[in-house]
Amino acid sequence: MNAESSAPWWRHAVVYQVYPRSFSDANGDGIGDLPGITSRLTHLRDLGVDALWISPFYTSPQHDHGYDVADYRDIDPLFGTLADADELIARSHQLGLRVIVDLVPNHTSDQHDWFQAALAAAPGSPERARYVFRDGRGPNGEEPPNNWSSVFGGPAWERVPDGQWYLHLFDRTQPDLDWRNPEVGDMFEDVLRFWLDRGVDGFRVDVAHGLLKEESLRDQILAEGEEPTSGASAGESMMGGLPRDEPMWDQPEVHDVYRRWRRVLSEYDGDRMLVAEAWTQTAASLARYVRPDEMHQAFNFAWLLAPWSAEAFAGVVTSTLQALDDAAPTWVLSNHDVVRHVTRYGGGPVGLARARAATVTMLALPGSAYLYQGEELGLEEVDVAPEHRQDPAWVRTGRSSRDGCRVPIPWSGDRPPYGFGPGTGQPWLPQPSDWARRTVAAEDGVAGSTLELYREALAARRKLAAAEPDAVELLDLGAEVLAFRRGALTVVLNCGEAPVPMPAGEVVLASGPVADTLPADTAVWLR
Ligand code: NOJ
Ligand code: CA
Q: What is the whole-number distance in angstroms between the Cα of residue 66 and the centre of ligand 1?
């Protein structure tokens, strides 16, 4: 299919993820906010992205930094007001940027009115029926109803004083809704309309594969030595591992929800869109979320999970495009849940060179690309000291923490808070002392900086890639090299250790210095 100009805006969009706590702090309390985002929108326009996706800003006790929503129709005072949200949306539109908001339908906060009412009501009541309350097992019901684990570690069930248990696939403060109860679907249709009426262009749907659970709530069958489920482990099978038994994820009935939402969005003008966060087991199961009457896009986590290997990258390109048929592919390397890609690829100068090369490659692929705030500066994962960590996954288990990719963005200056806010002290997560050369101001206008590379790559994408056909032809330039042709564009990524010869053509974009050959850890676009 061609990238005709009649394609909806999202089909080839570059979307920039804003994590509100960590983007820009207008009022100086050390935590990012909506007026802060609005004040920095010109950075996104100058970068050349098409849209921003904003992680949750709704009323929330912030146990999972907003992925625990207490009121879907209001803004947490930490981030501002509804008027601030309106201003953010209006200003984005003036600058030609679309706005995607984050919708969290799998669970609410335990502070949501519905959950508070459920706790106050009796077992078997309509209030409890909006969540997944069950009696326990064992003679006195003192064992959880099944063996499921929370993605954040520990059991997925919490007992309430009258002896019943409720399901939480994430933190204890994030009770799962029961999507088999029609009240739940009706509530979310209202929420969609609330934000569509305010002018948002789309929704990123949190845990899109989780809303419906296998009705029996049977035990998960774990193979010998297999860790209990974590939504993200699904990606392992995407990378060639064995399929897992997952009665809590990716149930067929979930697709009815998205068919309904698609119909709601179609009533609105302006190509509103839905993008799924769905950690499914295979490219084929992911493709089911983007059938013509369901969502418009789904994050392609296989690309992000691939190791630094030409063979692995080529495998993901092939399986993605094959599984999707005519649906829109997406590509992503970093977000607020994973280790930043500079660090995943080894950190330091090598990690940075590889990250830049992977990004340049990604931006030539058909479909749309998602960027995460700070990657345009080449930021690395920060080793946040244990006493500062706040991720509930860390708090529950003391194992992994996602805090290291959530450290506030450095804008200017030579010491914390690097222009993140007006104050002088450290923001909510401390910034490293060596970020002076990684600020937006320090990289602005500096040839070869990562910021300038991103600007150049996004401009090149608009000018040279957007009009090319979607079809990708893989080329064989050796085992260590990912190479493909897309229309008049040839893209070569050298994942090996030695320089490789380049195909004929004019180099129109390069992730690092190139000569007659293509150095290790470098990618180019040729025409
Ligand atoms: C996925 C979000 O990206 C993550 O940050 C959050 O913790 C879980 N869903 C639970 O909402
Ligand atoms: Ca603030």
A: 9
